[in-house]
Target: Cytochrome c domain-containing protein
Amino acid sequence: MPRPLPSALIVGVHLGLLQAGLLLTLSRAISAAHTTYALVLTAWLAGSALGLWSRAPARDLPRALLLGLVAYAAAAAALARVDFAAASPWWFAPAVAAAGLASGTFFAAAVAGGAATGRVFARETYGFLAGTLLAAAGYAFLGRHALLFMPLVTGTILFAPRRPRAAAAALAVLFSGCDDPERVVPAPDRARFGDEVYPLLLRDCAFPACHGDPRRPLFVPGPGRTRLGMPESPLDEPTRAEVDLAYDRARAWLLAEGDEPPPLLHKPGPRAAHEGRDEHGRNVYEDPEAPGLAILRGWAEGQEVSP
Model:
């Protein structure tokens, strides 16, 4: 008797979590530039094509799913404590391709089994979109650990298609979230940010190839850099919207993971992989006691900084 295919919807959710999780993990740890997007898209499609051309029967799908989970977990573990490493994301192309292999294998198995591929494709696509949104929401509200936790849950569901109780319990865990206490985003003094911190970030960090790029989680728009709207001159005074956006992005970077220091205070420092390097590769804050770092720490901790 041929092995039944798992739900196309759950497969789509699982694959959406994997692809979005890889993109978010690589963007956080290495680069959010276009090369990371190109890597994930190209390597994922290559893995999918390989799985599709293999014409794998349904019994091969669990192996492809397991390989994808192992590759995903390995990539996540390798980058767990990396903060903007000066490395090429293309080193992780094999892991992305391995994760995408299950996508092509699933459709190959569906075709081999005589399934209505149009219906399977539609359901998998809906699930994939849901998984992508779920990964983004989990990362935003629960942190980077959710990117590893959620694919493990959907993987458990897919590996136990004949155990509805286990699958239902896993789904309940997935959609109920973690038991961690609610995380509150710090809100240091807004006026002080505009007077002291915003000019500092604009000067040292908001280069177009760095945090002047709107795709960066920390985006600092303003005069002489990327602007919001259409000011008469790129050197016009910053608008309220620009300062408010930079303030919201900066305070979000004051959220810490466990015992790790907040990214806004750690990443620019000399002991972090990012090392506060500007677009020319120079370390902006090479000295641990650099005035810029002191201003950031003082604002975040609500302490006055001596001139």
